[in-house]
Structures are given as structure tokens and as C-alpha cells.
Amino acid sequence: MGFREQAAPVRRILGIALAVLLMGGVIAVVVLGRNGTEGTATKTVRGVIGSEKSEFFRDPDVVKALAAKGYTVKTETSGSWAMDQLALKEFDFAFPSSSEPAQEIEAAAGVKGAQTAKPFFSPLVVIARANAARVLVDNGLVKMNGKNTGTLLMGPYLKAAGEDRTWQQLNGSGAYAELTGTVFVKTTDPATSNSGALFIAATSNVANGGTVVSDGPGITRTAPLLRKLIQVQGALEPSTDDPFRAFISGSGEPLILAYESQVASLLMQKQTNAEVAGMVVLYPDTTVNSPHTFVPLNDRSKELGTLLATDPELRRLALRHGFRPQEGVAEFTAATAPYAGYLNPGLTGIRQVGAPTVKVLMALAARAKGQEDHA
Predict the structure, then answer these.
(1) Alpha helix (H) ranges present in the chain?
(2) How far apart are CA 101 and CA 193, in angstroms?
(3) What does the radius of gyration of the chain's CA atoms come to, in whole angstroms?
(4) pLDDT tens column, 258-314
(5) Which of 62, 188, 210, 294 could bridge across to 196 with cysteines, CB 3.0–4.6 Å?
(6) Which of 47, 113, 36 is nearest to 80 (CA)?
């Protein structure tokens, strides 16, 4: 056999071997892309979220952690109670700040019974300027638990609000020229914003003798006080972000409703100034917790809520942004230990109550704003 005849079979064998090697390489790349933690292929999902979660989803470390799990997440913000009015078909998920608006979103999107998840929560707090807190303490409306943290006593506070008390009528306020006008907590719009709605839920509970408002007579009984709490504020903000930023910049009202997560995140990221250093964080002694509830609107995002709740890295990053992971008291306490002087990690002395039904809560919000309701 000549050289040419011998070379042809050799070339065929080498060609087959090279093809096998190349195929193996392709398979290896596919496997690594699917299973390796450094895979770059992700699916993009769009969601509507409460503004208090914006910084979490913009965090480059969160973006990286989600990409490692196969997700690119794009978000828009809305008041939680206004989400059900949006064109929800344009989104893959909704992420309101509590479970009550989540029920309305499910109904509006036609996904009743969706596999929702509650990755983290955040209690409401009232942040106060140091002078305002001092006056409230001297008049029995606040009890201090540390240098920069205390408890807002809802009974005495609501009594003062019901009597239209002014700062000038409170003992010791004369030394602080900035404390003028009616004493009130600046909230968000209870008809569209979750924090404002839950504040109404908590205050109505106290005004209703410590029980959840559940019917028309209860609404009528508590409406006059709620109206005073809301209408004294003038224009209402749609979300907690703007009043909070105004407070930490040195403007705004002396008492602002916020989420604990906003305060904790600010402290842990060491974004402090004179206003932050002197603020006092007050936990209302009666409150309704705010479990941020992930609602998948289609199959593209159905696993994302569970991932946010269970992935160790995403839980760590949620803590960095001040959120309390579900079943994560010890994690939150450890993460915020350097700032314990501002916070109440164990929520000691706080009475947590249930919220009214969505129908009743929206009726309370309408009455508080001086509008008629249909409850």
C-alpha cells in the first residue's frame, strides 16, 4: 500500500477524534454555563416594587448574586396599595410591602392563589429629632429605652392628637423654637402607600379599645380620630422615601413615619451626618408588621421569591439593607449590633396586632382623608 493510501484512513481517524473532542468541549461549556456559579446566561424579569426596596435591587452585589442564580431583575416603584391599578401584564412580579395589598394584586392580575413568598419584613418606626423626643418624654408620650431609641406610647399620643394639642402646649417646648403647630406624625397616603395604611391599622386598633376594626360601627367610631391624624398633615406623600430623605437632610417635620429598614440601612452603610447622629428611633408600642410579599405574576419569576427568602447571600444582603429576614432575629441582632443604641432588635415591649380586612382598611383610609367609603 502506498503512502497516499495509508494517509487517507489516518486523516479520517484524526478527523473523527477531533470531532469527538470538540463535541465534548461544547458539552462541557453548556454544563458549566448551566451549573457553574459563574454562568452569565440570565433571564430578565420586570417587577413593580415599593420604593423602600429600590436601593436593595440597585445594589451591585445584589445584581451579581441574582445573576449567579440566573436572573436579571429590572424594577419600577409604586405605592403598594396602588399596584393593583397598574397594567400588571407588563410585569413578571409585584413586590408590595405587606401581605394585604398582595391579595388585591393577585385578584387584579388573575393569579389568585399564586405561590407568594415573604422574604423579609420591617416594622414601622417614628423617627424624631432629639429635641422633639425630649419634649415627648417630658410629657409622657414617649419612653426612652436607650440614648437614641425609645417607645412611642400610642394611648397618650392619640389622646394628645384627639385634643389637637400643639407643641407649644407641651411642657418644656418653649426652649425649642422649631417645635410649633399641632403635634403629629408625618405619614404617607394611607390609600396608596403601605406604611400609611398600616399606621392607620395600628392607630385604629388602639382607638377601638385594642381590637381590630371589623365592621361599619367600628369604622364610624374610629374615623374622627383618624381624620385628625391625616388631615393635619396637608399634602400626603405617595411613599416613605421622600419624607425620610427630607428628614435626614435636616428639613421636614420633627416626627416622621418610616420603616426600620430605612434607618438600619442608613446606619450600617455609615451614611451619617449631624441629623442622623442626633435622631431618635421610636417604636410604636402597638404596631402591624410589614412582611414584604413577593407575588409572581407568571412562570418566569415564580422561583425568584423563594430564592430571595432562602439564598444565604441574598439574605445577607437584605440584612445589609436593614431588612429582617423571616425567622432571622439572631441574624438581624448580629448585623446591627454596632447600632443597638438606635434599634430594638427583639422588638421588646411591642404589641403586634392584626390588620383589618382590605375592605375595612381602605374604608378607614378613605374616612381618614375625609372621603366617603362603601364599607
Answers:
(1) 3-35, 54-58, 60-68, 99-109, 130-138, 154-162, 194-207, 216-231, 241-248, 260-268, 274-278, 304-310, 312-320, 329-335, 358-368
(2) 10
(3) 27
(4) 999 999 999 988 766 666 778 999 999 999 888 999 999 999 999 999 999 999 999
(5) 188
(6) 47
